[in-house]
Design brief:
354 residues; alpha/beta; TIM Barrel; nine-stranded parallel β-sheet; 14 helices; globular
Amino acid sequence: MTGRRRSGRITPKLAALLDMLPLPALMTAAEALTLDGHGPVVTYSPAIDIRLTGTGRDACRCCPASKAACDDMLDRARRGAALGCREANLTLERPANRATLDRLAEAAEAILGETQLLPHLDPGPLMAADYARLRPFSASMRVVLESASERLCEPGAPLHHVADMGPVRGLGAIRAAARVRVPLTVSLTIGKGEDRTERIETLAAIRDVQRRHGHIQGIAIHPARPEMPAEELLWTIAATRLIFGPAMTIQTPSDFQPAGMLRLLLKAGVNDWGGIRPDIIETPDPGPAWSQRNFVERETRAAGRKLAERLAIAPAHALDADRWTHPAMARRISRAVDARGLPRRRRAHLTAVK
């Protein structure tokens, strides 16, 4: 019996149960599981975003404009590293194809050679051969799955225009990454027309892949719009925790959240804030670079938790880097982490909030 059929049998009962429980009870159960799996530690990755332009390797050698773009990319990476970042989050300006994937591999390799940053790649859904091509130059990658609901991808439905992020290609990409052992963050966008049962179906489908392969390092829950009701976001996070259990890393962005909301997100099952960026990467202003990070630490501490840096690869996968990453990357990761899978030393740039 396939994982999808197994999910189909249990999902209606699970969805009904989760929808029937009052939100406070759901959050209490989710928080208990989170503390059981992760203790009081809440992680984040100090990261710099780099969006790649241009096409392939030849363009960088021959075209002055492309060469300038490469130099700008490396300069941005160096500045991020100097500010205390540990992760380079690389995305593509153009759709993934042979040329843009070559460009992505080239950029990640250059960053590894020039800085201590670890690349986290966001190329969109790929085939296994493409993941294998990028694996030597990445600590982890990302796939966005809007929904596993076929209904939402039908003509005229909310997700018809983003079929690449729908169930067929999205789940296929998650399975393809598993075949070449790529640590994967799966981002689930909620609030695009799906109901709660469809969210549960999507989460159950992801869980079934994880049970077979174990390569998913985190589930990131993203609201489709800032004005989404807080109850819906909290319910979805708590449901995600109950479906995946104590060990899974569950994250949601800390940006644009009011102070009290961060504490509620932690109670709902969040144990990771994802990437937090320095404020002043674009200018040489010597002022405070990490106001968002300091805000997050204050709120995390107010919730009775402890904020800690991580690498671009989640702690559990970092401790098993020989299995999950290319040998050269595994050596780099293993030298950088302690017995918890977290970085050995805290950066001076990121001193604790008084």
